[in-house]
């Protein structure tokens, strides 16, 4: 494992139901910060870039994160990842059980289809809201 390549900070959030402490109204989905870690976001190999040239899109819409095999908590597939101010849902996980050094996590950018496109629970762009704990 090359630690010098892990230059991106990502944060994992679980989405849980809860109660707003101010209004005492139930919240449908309150993101709870689980932990942060360093990750590597490898570039797309040229072979894959040429094969997928007919698909228009940006690499940052579906990044792959390489994280340490041993993390503070086991990552759950229904968690969200915040990276560079954007939110991503986990689409696949591939831990390396042979070498036990890295885990590969595939993700897809979460896009809201509402009128406040690109904004989080607090109305600010790219944030998960003020309901963070931890």
CATH fold-level assignment = Thrombin, subunit H
Mean pLDDT: 79
CATH top level class name: Mainly Beta
As a percent range, the share of strand residues is 35-45%
Annotated CATH architecture: Beta Barrel
Question: Could you name the CATH homologous superfamily?
Answer: Bacteriophage SPP1 head-tail adaptor protein
Distance, first to last CA: 29 Å
Low-confidence stretches: 115-121, 130-134
The number of distinct β-strands equals 6
Question: How many H/I helices?
Answer: 1
What is the 3D shape? globular
Rg (CA only):
16 Å
Compute the number of structural domains: 1
What spatial order of strands do you see in the largest sheet? Answer: 2-1-4-5-6-3
Structural class: mainly beta
Query: How do the helices and strands follow one another from N- to C-terminus?
Result: EEHEEEE
- Percent of residues in helices: under 10%
Query: Main sheet, how many strands, which sense, barrel?
Result: 6 strands, antiparallel
Pfam families: Phage_HCP
InterPro entries: Phage_SPP1_head-tail_adaptor, SSP1_head-tail_sf
Region (Disordered): 109-134
Protein name: Putative phage head-tail adaptor
Describe, in short, the structure shown:
With 134 residues, the chain is mainly beta. It contains one helix and six strands.
Tags for this model:
Thrombin, subunit H; mainly beta; SSP1_head-tail_sf; six-stranded antiparallel β-sheet; 1 helix
